[in-house]
Each structure stands twice: as C-alpha cells, then as structure tokens.
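Example 265, ligand 2-oxoglutaric acid.
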Amino acid sequence: MRKFNDTGIYTKNNFDEYWDKGFIIIKDLVDPELCEYSNVLARSIADKDFGQIMHLHKEDFLVAQSAEKISQMGSLHEKVMYYRKLKQISNHFNEFLKNPEIVQYLSWLYGRQMAGLLTNLFFKEPGTKYCKQAWQVHQDNNYTGNENGMYVTVNLTFNYMSQKNGGLRLYPGSHKLGVLEAEERVSYRESDGKPGNTITEKLPMDPVECELEKGDVLFMHGLCAHESSDNLSNDGRPLLSLGYMAMGEKFDPGFQSKRSITFLN
Ligand SMILES: O=C(O)CCC(=O)C(=O)O
Ligand SMILES: [Fe+2]
C-alpha cells in the first residue's frame, strides 16, 4: 500500500494529525451492529455492579471474574453452560482485537507490525457503583511501562460517548512530553471512584472533549494524557479499550493483569 492517499482515511492529514495531537478519531470504522452485539455479550457476563471486565479476550480471565456468579448457580449443568458461554465470548473479543480495519490502520500509523496486548470494558452503568468512576489524568503507557512509548490504546463505545455520560477528555500534544511521573492508584474495581495512575505535574495544555458514536474508533498514543468524569446521566457508556504494542517492544506484563501478546494476523 502507498503510504498516503488523497482521499479516505490513509491521508497525510490524518497521519500528521495523529502524530501532532497524539490521537485521532476515525468515524464509522467498524460496523455499529458489531458494537451492539458485543454489548449484548459483555452485559450478559457483567456482575451486579457492572465492574470493569479485564481481558475479555481471555477465557481464564472471564472465568476468574465470574467466580461469584458461577458459585451461585445451582446445578452442574448451569455451570458448564455458563463456562461454555464464557469461552465463546472470549473468542468473540479475541477476534475483535484482531479487527482488520483497526489493525491495518495502526500498522499504517506506526509503520510497524503490531501485537494485541489487552482488552478492557468500562460500563459506567447508570445507577451502579462504577457510574461514579472519574479517571484521573494518566498515560496508558504507564501501565505497560514501555520506554519507547510504543503502546497504543484503541477505544470504541458500544453506545455513544460524550461529556454527558462520562466520556474522555484528551490532552492534545501531551504524548510529546514523554513518559511523565505518576502516582500509582488502584485502577481495577477501585473503591474510591478515582482510578488512574495520576500524572503529578500540571500539564501545559487544556484537554479537549472526546465524542464518539457507535462505530467510531479513537486511536490514542500510549503517552497521550487523558481523564474522564463520572456518569450521572441515564445513558450507559460501555467503552471497549483495546491495547496494542509494536511488535518486539518490551512491556511490563503486570502481576494481576498478566498481559501477553496476541498475534494479529
Ligand atoms: O473509562 C474511562 O473513562 C477511562 C478508562 C481509561 O482511561 C483507561 O482504562 O485507561
Ligand atoms: Fe486510560
């Protein structure tokens, strides 16, 4: 493929925008029906608080995060059927991580072959404990610890995302500041509603609000600082976060997260 096209999404403008701001939104990159179907699957295995689900693409993580639900099931039949469902759902999200449109765009932006590293789902379901989840300003690369900033987050919503329902705010150009010092905070099913390994310095730019519709895809540099507020609306904000790392780069697997690469093609 030629590096740049004059029309479509593979333009010099888009390339420059990504590397200038540290993020870009590509409208309608994935099928909205895929988002709706994925939402149905994810909701069917959510716990009562709609807590974050980590690594939907890994069967063992889904089983581990469903332990309470499974223990409440009466019959062996029910448990086995639920286990089979988890297996199917992890396969679905493993395929999602390999989405050709997303993977091709990432490889084009970075000029590198990419590997899948993680999947996360944040429901911010109205009326639940985790709708009051305000992510403090952070860089996602902080979690994966790549010195070259070669981690990338790809975000999609299964509904819509705006400031009304707890959407993200992004700090344009902050990826150029490199790896920033941060204070570690519990960022998985925390109890204080303030997750995110928080950047300690005051950033020299103002954040911009990020709006997404079903099917839009946000590509965000791992060093791009971002944050979000709680969701006090009646609309859920299921946000799927797909994590990628350029092939061959070092990363911290994390004792709890046990990140490992998934080959994408
Ligand atoms: O769910 C949110 O509002 C933000 C999530 C996030 O930034 C993250 O997981 O790194
Ligand atoms: Fe983040």
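Summary: The pocket of 2-oxoglutaric acid (ligand 1) is lined by residues 120, 122, 135, 140, 166, 168, 226, 228, 239, 241 (CB under 6 Å).
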